[in-house]
Write a structure and sequence with these properties.
Blueprint: H1 3-59, H2 82-96, H3 106-116, E1 131-135, H4 143-155, E2 159-164, H5 166-175, E3 180-183, H6 190-195, E4 203-206, H7 214-229, E5 234-236, H8 239-246, E6 257-259, H9 263-274, H10 283-293, E7 298-301, E8 306-309, E9 314-317, H11 329-346, H12 355-378, H13 384-388, H14 391-399
Parallel strand pairs: 1-2, 1-4, 2-3, 4-5, 5-6, 6-7
Antiparallel strand pairs: 7-8, 8-9
């Protein structure tokens, strides 16, 4: 055999060996994920049992009207450890959301978010806390996919992939060495190139910097369909919402889908489904109607107060932000939501709370807190880059304190 043939055989065998390694690694990661899910389910079951126990103890306590005998010794108060009381409070807060249609108590809902945040331990390996994909990035828009991808990393994802067009890739790579950038979105076999990465992804964010070219929208639609088949949580924002407005069926009824429109995007989507002007006097009614029309998708209407619904209940996020509305804040929200959605669905063994709503509330709260902290430092000159620098401290203040 010639040297050229030998080299070709060697390269082919090397590629096959590498593919085999990645397949084995993926199987190992999946087995580890299943083990963690089972462990988390056991923990939640224990919390449920503790909650029921404390509830029965509380209901069996004598009423305040009962008067002890003067001759009898005073009854000894039951003693609970601080850990037991803490478990009871976590349980009570975790299940309270399912029985109410609207809660303005941000602290209670924040407790639900705290419960889905995975602990940081030395036993974990790279990728275990989240591998997130961003579908977007074209010649005109390179900042949005970067903001979404870097926000996902800052929130706690281990790996962040950006699937963009060829002419956007170098620009996005230059923003940060932390991102894995794939210049495939406008290639002839774009869907196949992206699909081979889907088994490794825990969440997908579609829309930041996508643009509205027919070819890119067609690719995004097919990637959404492939992701739905794999039961991957999908966040759709920005130009991804333009696609949904044109073709609602692409995500309609998918229970792990989350839409994050601003007011104008929401209005377009509402009127495209209802074929009539929207009554802007009752936003809560509107978001519930649109969610139901979309098959009870989780919907986040961003505004003065962010309204979050799955068609059966509405919760509002009123964590204090600021009056500054710079471009890119929605990308921070969608990127962080991609991670939180993965965490929430991985921790959803209890089943009584919609994981997507918990994740959405967490992302809205985090974005508002970042905005508030950045505004305190920079005032009117605040930009999304300033907000991203606040993610670590904002996350700790909201979810780890």
């Amino acid at each position: 055999l010639s040297f050229k043939k030998l080299m070709e055989q060697f390269l082919e065998q090397s590629a096959q060996a590498e593919d085999g390694f990645y397949r084995m690694e993926e199987q190992r990661l999946q087995a580890e994920d299943r083990r963690r899910e089972a462990e988390h389910a056991r923990e939640l079951h224990m919390l449920q049992m503790l909650g029921q126990m404390f509830s029965s103890i509380s209901s069996s306590r004598p009423g305040s009207a009962a008067t002890p005998s003067k001759t009898a010794p005073p009854a000894r108060a039951p003693v609970f450890s601080s850990a037991s009381l803490s478990c009871g409070r976590v349980f009570e807060r975790y299940y309270s959301l399912g029985s109410t249609s609207h809660r303005g108590m941000d602290d209670d809902t924040l407790s639900l978010v705290k419960n889905i945040v995975p602990p940081l331990t030395s036993k974990k390996h790279k990728g275990q806390d989240g591998r997130i994909g961003i579908i977007g990035g074209c010649q005109d828009y390179t900042g949005a996919p970067y903001f979404a991808a870097i926000s996902a990393l800052k929130v706690g994802a281990d790996l962040s992939h950006v699937f963009c067009t060829k002419d956007a890739a170098t620009v996005i790579k230059s923003y940060s060495p932390e991102l894995i950038v794939h210049p495939v979105l406008d290639s002839p076999n774009a869907v196949e190139e992206i699909e081979k990465w889907l088994p490794r992804l825990h969440g997908l964010v579609v829309g930041p910097g996508l643009g509205r070219e027919d070819l890119l929208l067609k690719t995004a639609k097919e990637v959404i369909e492939k992701s739905k088949a794999r039961d991957i949580p999908i966040v759709i924002d920005a130009d991804g919402l333009w696609l949904v407005t044109q073709q609602p069926a692409v995500i309609q009824g998918y229970q792990k889908g989350i839409l994050t429109p601003n007011f104008m995007e929401f209005t377009r989507l509402y009127e495209s489904l209802h074929h009539e002007p929207m009554d802007s006097s009752d936003h809560q009614r509107n978001v519930m109607q649109l969610s139901v029309a979309m098959g009870n998708l989780t919907l986040v209407l961003k505004g003065e107060q962010d309204l979050i619904t799955d068609g059966s209940k509405v919760i509002s996020c009123s964590v204090e932000g600021s009056g500054r509305r710079c471009g890119g804040q929605g990308d921070l929200l969608s990127g962080s939501l991609g991670v939180l959605a993965h965490w929430a669905h991985a921790a959803s063994a209890a089943g009584t709370v919609n994981p997507s709503m918990v994740a959405a509330f967490g992302a809205c709260s985090l974005t508002r807190q970042c905005n508030s902290q950045a505004f305190q430092r920079h005032g009117r000159s605040t930009t999304t880059t300033d907000m991203i620098q606040e993610i670590g401290t904002a996350f700790k203040k909201l979810f780890e304190s």
